């Protein structure tokens, strides 16, 4: 899957292919966002400008115009809160819902029809390891087609997430995830307590999180 994903065609700036991609992105927002009623509302979707900007910045990056591409990325990040490195590869009909806090690294590859919720990170494991990698070696994840990445999911390193997989909210993924599987973080456990014991337990949990 990695080879297939990394050879996806990239539309050139100003070509009909790019225009078709942009129109497809707009229709995708209407289809997948229940709060969006029509294409006019989709134009105001908070993450759509980041995807569209990346559609332009990525070909520039591939042509060696790295500074121009990075400038576009920074503008999109300032405007939308979504950071997609221009070197990353996005497939068709990628839908980023809300967009706030989404980070997609330079060598990441995202397949077709992927849904990404807010605060998702497709990142590397850290410069202390990446500096030791060979030139051109992948540092970021490859995400297959029709994958769903839940809120605050974090996928790190050169791992592969297979087609039709689901990465649950809050999940941390550092190993490959096979196709049609689910990587889910533990759900919150509800505990009913009364009086002082509940207050002490609450303080203990809060203190362990460093929040007081």
- In helices, the fraction of residues equals 25-40%
Content of β-strand: 5-15%
What is the number of independent domains? Answer: 1
Q: Tell me the overall shape.
A: globular
Contiguous uncertain segments of 5+ residues: 1-7, 9-16, 208-212
Q: What's the story with the biggest beta sheet?
A: 5 strands, parallel
Terminal-residue CA separation: 46 Å
CATH top-level class: Mainly Beta
Give the integer mean of the pLDDT values: 87
Strand arrangement in the largest pleated sheet: 1-4-7-10-13
Query: Which structural class fits the helix and strand makeup?
Result: alpha/beta
The overall strand count is: 14
Count of DSSP-assigned helices: 7
CATH 4th-level superfamily: Hexapeptide repeat proteins
């Amino acid at each position: 899957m990695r080879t297939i994903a990394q050879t996806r065609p990239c539309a050139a700036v100003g070509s009909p292919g790019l225009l078709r991609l942009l129109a497809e992105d707009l229709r995708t927002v209407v289809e997948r966002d229940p709060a969006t009623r029509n294409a006019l509302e989709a134009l105001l979707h908070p993450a759509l400008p980041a995807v569209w900007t990346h559609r332009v910045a990525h070909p520039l990056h591939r042509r060696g115009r790295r500074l121009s591409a990075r400038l576009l990325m920074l503008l999109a990040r300032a405007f939308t809160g979504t950071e997609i490195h221009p070197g990353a590869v996005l497939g068709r009909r990628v839908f980023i819902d809300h967009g706030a806090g989404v980070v997609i690294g330079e060598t990441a590859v995202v397949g077709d029809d992927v849904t990404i919720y807010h605060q998702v990170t497709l990142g590397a494991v850290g410069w202390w390891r990446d500096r030791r990698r060979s030139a051109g070696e992948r540092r970021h994840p490859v995400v297959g087609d029709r994958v769903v990445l839940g809120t605050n999911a974090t996928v790190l390193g050169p791992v592969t997430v297979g087609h039709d997989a689901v990465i649950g909210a809050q999940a941390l993924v550092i190993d490959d995830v096979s196709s049609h599987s689910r990587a889910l973080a533990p759900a919150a456990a509800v505990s009913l307590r009364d009086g002082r014991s509940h207050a002490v337990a609450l303080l203990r949990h809060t203190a362990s999180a460093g929040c007081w």
